[in-house]
TrEMBL record:
The gene is LOC105056327. Residues 1-186 form the Formyl transferase N-terminal domain. Pathway: Purine metabolism; IMP biosynthesis via de novo pathway; N(2)-formyl-N(1)-(5-phospho-D-ribosyl)glycinamide from N(1)-(5-phospho-D-ribosyl)glycinamide (10-formyl THF route): step 1/1. It is found in: Plastid, Chloroplast. Keywords: Chloroplast, Plastid, Purine biosynthesis, Transferase, Transit peptide. This is Phosphoribosylglycinamide formyltransferase, chloroplastic. The lineage of its organism: Eukaryota, Viridiplantae, Streptophyta, Embryophyta, Tracheophyta. One of its GO terms (cellular component) is chloroplast.
Amino acid sequence: KKLAVFVSGGGSNFRAIHEATVEGSIYGDVTVLVTDKPSCGGAEYARDNEIPVILFPKGKSISEGLSPDDLVSTLRNFEVDFILLAGFLKLIPVELVRAYPRSILNIHPSLLPAFGGKGFYGLNVHKAVVASGARYSGPTVHFVDEHYDTGRILAQRVVPVLANDTAEQLAARVLQQEHQIYVEVVSALCEERIIWREDGVPLIRRKE
Ligand code: GRF
């Protein structure tokens, strides 16, 4: 399968996924990287690994670079099967959501629906978790719709919040688990091991 990864930051999840494709635990290839921040760590890693980098449409009315429709056709030209958001901060245009039904995933660093939605990104999420007194947090992988963090939940992993955790310490503990769970889920996606329950909930079938 052909994967497009979208990043805005350091790209450690992107790296984990790319390494898994190279080493063969994901049956797929990262065919293209999309970013709104061409100088971010993720884009740099893509260039180092000869993965083409394309710029995400900027602005709503004046489109600098690609329009959402151009982005869709560019991804089609790359024959992209699945889109993986990995620390990508912009909202996905509805054109893209419609063009890739049940094919766009995001990873979020809390147990959704808690601590999700606009404003909950990066360290903010972990700060809010620590401040709330919640005893558990952890990553959620979910399908993407046209809103922030509201698409169908596909997988989660529980990570304890320790009594004296700082947001940074919690973030690091959650991020380690993000890398593992995202690789597992993308491997299931590429092997067509996602089944949709009648009520629209996606489930992962274990490897035989
Ligand atoms: C991760 O915590 C991810 O869940 C969130 O942004 C962070 C990205 O980290 N959406 P990286 O760029 O993959 O290192």
